[in-house]
Specification:
159 residues; mainly alpha; Four Helix Bundle (Hemerythrin (Met), subunit A); two-stranded antiparallel sheet; 7 helices; 4% strand; globular
């Protein structure tokens, strides 16, 4: 069962802190997520760099969800996992879909293990998972936070 931001924030040393929703920040996170997905599609760079970008597209979209829900992530250990799980729970993402996308985090983290690298085929699979995820995030914002999005797109800060 996926935990909410509030539940995750109650864990010891949680990398989540309450912070009022900010429309401009939400839009900035969503725009940055799209840029990262576009970066992941650039075949002139290494598969590892593209995988980093694919995961970052997920992470940045999740930071937007967190921001809309009144949370921010610190850079403390576990912030990627916490933000992703909290956003997945908020959006009602199923466990199997969560697990598929969470595999990207593992693929991305291979760079920290000697001799293990992402392949071009894995990057293409990652892009195939991230693209509909970003569409789901956009739909969730349209359904759950239309005023916040309108304010963010017009330059407003408050929800």
């Amino acid at each position: 069962m996926l935990l909410s931001f509030k539940q995750l924030a109650c864990e010891p040393d949680a990398p989540l802190k309450p912070l009022a929703a900010n429309a401009r920040d939400v839009v900035a996170w969503l725009q940055a997520a799209q840029v990262k997905l576009n970066d992941a599609r650039q075949t002139v760079v290494s598969a590892g760099t593209r995988m980093d970008a694919a995961w970052d597209a997920v992470l940045l979209a999740c930071l937007a969800v967190a921001c809309a829900q009144g949370w921010r992530a610190t850079s403390d250990k576990g912030h990627h996992a916490a933000v992703f799980e909290g956003a997945a729970q908020a959006m009602g993402l199923g466990q199997s879909r969560f697990d598929e996308l969470d595999a990207l985090r593992d693929w991305r983290n291979r760079k920290y293990r000697a001799g293990q690298f992402s392949t071009a085929a894995e990057v293409e699979e990652a892009i195939a998972l991230v693209t509909p995820f970003q569409a789901d995030v956009a739909s969730w914002f349209a359904d759950q936070h239309p005023v916040l999005m309108k304010q963010g797109l017009s330059g407003g800060a408050a929800p």
